Amino acid sequence: MASSVAALRAAAQSSALLSKSGASQNVPTAQLPAMSGLGRANRLLTPSAKSSQAASKRQAPGAVQVRATIAEEKKVLSIEEAEARVVEGNPPPAPPPQPKPRKPKGTPPCDPLDLTSRPRRNRRNGTFRAAFQETTLSPSNFILPVFIHEGETAAPINAMPGCYRVGWRHGLLDEVRKARDVGVNQVVLFPVVPNALKTPTADECYNPEGIVPRAIRLLKDTFPEIVIYTDVALDPYNSDGHDGIVNEAGEILNDETVYQLAKQAVMQADAGADVVSPSDMMDGRVGAIRNALDEAGHHNVSIMAYTAKYASAFYGPFREALDSNPRFGDKKTYQMNPGNFREALIEVESDEVEGADILMVKPAMPYLDVIRLLRDNTSLPVSAYQVSGEYSMIRAAAAAGMLDEKKAILESLLCIKRAGADLILTYFATEAAGYLVADAAKKPWS
Q1: Which of 141, 262, 293, 377 sits in a 20 to 30 Å window from 274, CA-based?
Q2: Which residues lie in Low complexity bias regions (predicted)?
Q3: 160-185 pLDDT, tens digit each
Q4: pLDDT tens digit string along 194-239?
Q5: Where are the domains of the chain?
Q6: Are 303 and 350 in contact (CB under 8 A)?
Q7: Which fold has domain 139-439?
Q8: Cα 288 to Cα 274: distance, rounded to the nearest angstrom
Q9: Which residues are catalytic?
Q10: Is the entire prediction scored with pTM above 0.85?
């Protein structure tokens, strides 16, 4: 008897120690006093556990049944068991249908219209609108125009808020780097040429050590995969400010100008340009440039022709940026009449036959109908230039609080793309691409 009492006392002491340490389950069985019967079953129970066990014994039989039912519901059913319950008419519960939104007080009572087609059904939420959107924008659609000069610092362009003339050695690389960070990998270069280098015959345009070829070589050395477009035109280099050589009667000489343009294009290709872009609107210049490029071995250099370039008032800020306003007269004898539509087809046919790879419309927004005309009449890619005046109008309206700047930028570009443009030259390229990248993970555009 005494030995039994001693064994019980030892068991109690072990239980108390385990309760204090909170680690009774980790104590080896061999370290506990040997017991039999109820003593062995209870030896690992702490006082609180024993209390819970006792309370459980005192609960009504109904509570035990409830616990059993809950445990059964938590059980993962096999496919056969789940189907059997449904067949028995005992499917698992699901939320009720969403209630219909209440109409505002005072809504007039009326019978539904007898309509078989309701186009608004496909516009009723953001997911549908995104799924059915016919035209989308991508940074790959954009070409960034960059103004370059010989200076080391960036000079703001007053008529184009947010745009600068950047140094070709430093600022140019920064601009291209920012553009590439948001997926814009195409740039077009426009040079600011010192007045001392401008001449009536624009010979600086084909100088292999001029600012444009130097900038091309630097870009290709820094960003080998960047696609570089160049402007093939005489106006930045011409002391008269025109796109061609001018005789003493004020006439723009077509064929002599084309001769200079072909030399300029070859020089740009020699420097590493991927696409040369004649913007002069001289007759026959695409064919002459194509022949000159091929003769120089540049069979893979493309031509983006300014096919339908109109004599527009929207170029004003650009000409301030490059200081390339005509010294006399205007450009109406070579650029197209804004009132003409069908004439663009003549230019399309000529440029296609002469070997153009891309056809451009300039300006873009006021000439969406012409963009569509080209899209419907050529299989070549179509580009459009959202020119400086279009850019500055949006900036000015947004600065005055008249427009939401971001929405206006993206909508204007979307409309140009919708009209049929595959590529868009825009001063908003980096900014717009940044918006697109930031919005990519958000809900559909609305």
Answers
A1: 377
A2: 10-24, 48-60
A3: 999 999 999 989 999 999 999 999 99
A4: 999 999 999 999 999 999 999 999 999 999 999 999 999 999 999 9
A5: 139-439
A6: no
A7: TIM Barrel (3.20.20)
A8: 18
A9: 309, 362
A10: no
